[in-house]
Write a structure and sequence with these properties.
Strand content: 25-35%
Shape: elongated
Keywords: DNA-binding, Transcription, Transcription regulation
GO biological process, one term: negative regulation of DNA-templated transcription
Number of strands: 10
CATH class of the largest domain: Alpha Beta
CATH superfamily of the largest domain: Chorismate lyase-like
Distance between the termini: 47 Å
CATH topology of the largest domain: Chorismate lyase
CATH architecture of the largest domain: 3-Layer(aba) Sandwich
Protein name: GntR family transcriptional regulator
GO molecular function: DNA binding; DNA-binding transcription factor activity
Pfam family, one: GntR
Radius of gyration: 22 Å
């Protein structure tokens, strides 16, 4: 297994996980073989046991290995199950993630928020929306990385005619076509069991674990104009955030 040249960028556990994954892909550890133990990996790379365990956990999540007490870490695949992930530290980074994907199979509805929908969205009863339901796919257009439902203020319904050719977030399309600027996004992340209808579209089993992300986009006037809900299948998606310490004063 190659040595790792540490530098800025990915955390150490991710660098170690990638080095092991590369070794598996080259056939150094065939399917069915055992990886070196934690202590051996610690000595080989001069990493802490915590870093090694995080790297092995990451490899398990991507479907390359399985870990069993008393046996060790067994290689079960030579290539990982694809997982679409992104790290968000700013609105620009969120827009960048969206630009690497696009929405397909759009369904459009003109709706007026009743009290139930308004309560769900955190909007006002009587507010008019363009509701967009779609699947989000990566550049290779393989299995969808999300089912998405968006409620967009009706004054921006003109985006409907441009969506088919647009890659990226709908909010960025609103900014492009209208005198609007996203100034704040409120995000809520929760665990979800994927219901049968959405599971069928995402090609996963009903009840599979998923990640639900609700986002509310506010414009330059501070008023929310877009409410988006996305359901991501657990095996194909991860979300990372970096929190920096801000000293008081």
């Amino acid at each position: 297994m190659d040595k790792i040249n540490l530098g800025l960028g990915a955390p150490r556990y991710q660098q170690l996980a990638q080095a092991i994954a590369d070794s598996i892909a080259r056939g150094e550890y065939p399917v069915g073989s055992l990886l070196p133990g934690e202590e051996d990996l610690c000595r080989q790379f001069n990493f802490s046991r915590f870093t090694v365990r995080e790297a092995l956990r990451h490899l398990q999540e991507t479907g390359l290995v399985t870990r069993r007490q008393g046996i060790g870490t067994t290689v079960i695949a030579s290539t990982p199950t694809r997982k679409f992930g992104h790290m968000i530290e700013s609105i620009d980074q969120l827009q960048q993630y969206a630009s690497e994907t696009r929405l397909i199979d759009h369904v459009f509805e003109d709706v007026v928020a009743d009290e139930e929908l308004a309560a769900e969205l955190g909007s006002t009863p009587g507010m008019k929306f363009l509701r967009i339901t779609a699947l989000r796919v990566g550049a290779d257009e393989s299995k969808p990385v999300a089912w998405t439902r968006i409620h967009l203020a009706a004054i921006y319904a003109g985006v409907r005619s441009s969506l088919a050719e647009h890659s990226g977030a709908i909010g960025s399309l609103v900014e492009k076509l209208y005198d609007q600027k996203i100034t704040a996004i409120r995000q809520t992340v929760s665990a979800a069991a994927i219901d049968e209808a959405i599971a069928d579209m995402l090609d996963v089993a009903p009840g599979s674990p998923g990640l639900r992300i609700d986002r509310t986009y506010a414009g330059h006037d501070g008023i929310p104009f877009e409410f988006a809900t996305s359901i991501h299948p657990g095996p194909r998606f991860s979300l990372s955030m970096q929190l920096d310490w801000m000293s008081p004063g």
